Amino acid sequence: MPTDKADLLQGTLDMLILKIVALGPVHGYGISQRIQQISKEVLKVQQGSLYPALHRLEKRGWLAAEWGESGKGRQAKFYKLSAKGRKQLEKEEAGWHRLAGAVGRILQTES
Amino acid sequence: MDWLSDLFGKRRLEDKLDSEIRFHIEELTEAKIVAGIEPGEARRQAMLEFGGKEQIKEKLRDVHRLPLIETAAANVKSAFRFMRKSPLFSITVIATLALGIGANSAVFSALDAIVLRPLPFPESDRLMRLDQYNPKAPGQGGPVAPVRLEDWNRLNSTFQAMAGYYTQDESETSGDLPEKVTMAAVTPRFLEVWGVAPVLGRDFSPDEERFGGPAAVLISDRFWRRRFGGDPTVVGKKLHLSGYSQTIIGVMPASFLFPVRDVDVWTAIGMDAPFAQSRESTWFTTIGRLKRGVTVAQACANMASVQAQLGHQFPQTDGDLKVSVEPLKETVVGDVTESLWLLFGAVSVLLLIACVNIAALLLARASERQHEIAIRLALGATRAAVMSQLLTEVLVMALIGAALGLALAGGAAGVFRALAGNLPRFDEITLDWRIVLYTLTCAVLVALLCALFPALHATRRGLSGSLAQSSRTQVAGRNPLQWLLVGLQVALAVTLLTGAGLLLRSFQALGRVSPGFNPSHVLTLHITGGYGETADMKTLGHRIDRTLDALRVLPGVEAATTSATLPGVPAQYEVELKLAEGRAEARPKIMVESRYVSRDYFATMQIPLLAGKSCPEDPGTPAALVNRSFANAYFSGESVIGHHLVATENAFLGSGEIRGIVGDAREVGLNRAPVPTVYWCGSASGPDPNYLIRTRAEPMAMADTIRRKIHEVEPGRSVFDVMPLSDHLGDAFADTRLRTVLLTFFALTALSLACLGLYGTLSYFVSVRRREVGLRLALGAVPGRVLRQFLYEGLRVSLLGCASGLLLGAAFARVLSGMLYGVTPSDAPTLLGVVMVIIAVAAVASLVPAIRAARVEPMQVLREE
Predict the structure, then answer these.
(1) Smallest Cβ distance to B63: which of A28, A52, A74?
(2) What is the pTM of this model?
(3) CA-CA 20 to 30 A from B678: which of A73, B212, B324, B360?
(4) For A48, which of B30, B59, B64 is closest by C-beta distance?
């Protein structure tokens, strides 16, 4: 287990969830696994933040949820992106790139 | 609806949260087992990694919580807490609202049942009343000849069907005692027009609608229950109506509210009967059902051309006739509409006063709660949250008030019926969901109206500054807003008082009118008789005279007579007369009110005989008397007696010699000045005239004796509608009585509310300014001066309100002007009276708080510092 985990920046969790869900319908466990895998174990989402975020996004209408069977025959709640969610994701991605670019440029300046 | 299913699906939500979390933990455990960890350990680690299950669930619940409902619930809870904390205030508000909303709902229930709702028949807006009338002989239109009705029905293209009816009272003699039943004789297509089928049995068959066919009757639900105890096998039984045996073929449903409410039986009349062929008879009140999509105007035009066609065909009888087509509802409801809208307006003003009153109370209250509100705002509550709490408080009280008000309105329906007498449709007033809905809407609107402004006012931004100052050291400035509200209440109350005053004065004037006859100690009644008897007028006359003679010799009876109409009860029979002796062409046409009376009429009604002789004993010679107005209008100065009158347009009246002149009497209504009138002498104007009996004692005390005597003379006939003439006169003005009594009640309620408002507001100011007053007194001010100052403040706002109220009242009086009698809309005594009442009431309401202010103990106030 890697020890140097990064804390999630405030507000970025929603965007990450939307991004993961955009890849295809997935359950809560799957989302936490993917974030971990894709970030190469750098990001680890606490369940205590993941699930409230999922439910909040569902309530806002960005995610649609459906109960279905997981690969092993268990009932699981699958989330997928709604049209509204897709728009939101685009907005947040653009915002993130702008922010990251700006921060990067500042850090690159030589003292 | 999402929140609704969420609310009720709380259990389901809980299950879903559980299974979502369980799934996660199971997946996690499995992953660990695959990685080679022993199952028990894997599960333990998974649980640990997942974290606090309950905490997460609570967070999820937070996400799903319904902010709106839960805040509302909290607001309602705090509203009840608030009400418990200040019971006196809450009770005042609730009582005021209960009265305001209750009165409003009560009047609305009457308005709804009588004016707004359609008549209780299927598609009743298609029902029209058709009348024939002759523009040259006003006042005589109405019932239609059978043959003409059939012509209309056949020739028109706008009506689905037309049918007619007339009613008469019959004796039903199959029981032990003759029982009076009201029978409606109806034409074919009768039930088709109304669109109602019998609940038991069947409609008339074509055979039964033919002259000489089997005698059949439909009976009313009321008669069915009264007479047969609701026996389901009643169809086929017989009734004996005025000597004829008739078979019951069906029972009409209770919901069939026939315009003549007391009809017990319906019987079909043969339109082919030989006596039904005259185009001059006036038998049927005619109702038509329009074809779908046809407008009243189209029907009018169509009927005009139909009648024009008949006019060509029968110039003698139909040439002058026209047809009027009017929605049935308008002819049924008629004049009451105006009174009801008036009362509804008045009662809405009353509700407005109640609102203003409460708004003023809330404003006063809000300044007391400034501190609390300021703290809440300072602690981060949003303005909307505080306002919604304040609004909820009032809404809860308004809803409680509305519930009480509904109970009040339920009770008021009885009052309405008592006041309404025989006004149409008052028996249809009920409290149903429409009224409940209306009342709830009222409550919500009222809550918004009363509370919105005070709530806005209380949560103004600047007020948060009040946190800085302690309420104890605060000296209230003048608050023009509260005074404005008090003035508004007074103004509205004055408006209602003015209207009520004018109506009361009219009613008084009506009572003071000398009618020209003496209505007291006169008993009126009817004795059943059928139109069949009119075939032999002589026998009919003898029959009625025999009864009258028997009554005249009864001890306690001073005089007895019959008349086709009741004196003073509005009814008009205007006819044009000519003189047999001829008259100069240049002189005006003789238009008179026609009355048909038997010989002792003038003695019974105590109408003085001014000249000549009264009606002759021998009914053989046609005779007439005229009133003084007649003599003055058409024979100024000349001798009237001895001339012969001829009724040109009315074959029934024929001609008669003028035998005498009598004093003017208000025959056509107490509110109408006497008009030229001719009294035709004769006992029988029809089979069932009004009997008028002057008694020595209280008329109703004689009722039994008289009834028994009539039974002796006419064992086969029944006596009905026994009541004093004064009751008839009262009922004739039921509409006037209704609006006068209710408007007066509303005005007095408005006055008390305004008085309460004034008292409450002034008391509040006195309490707020106690410190200031105490200081002034301590510095040597005279208590009398303090008293005068507060008294003056109360009176000033009342007088300003009164002045603007009089302006509003003038507008209101103009609306009323058609309903006034004997007073002008700007009647000085009424206006003066209103001003006096307001000054007196305002003085009393201001005096108490003013005295309290003058009695402030300066030392005590200063010690409180």
Answers:
(1) A52
(2) 0.72
(3) B324
(4) B59
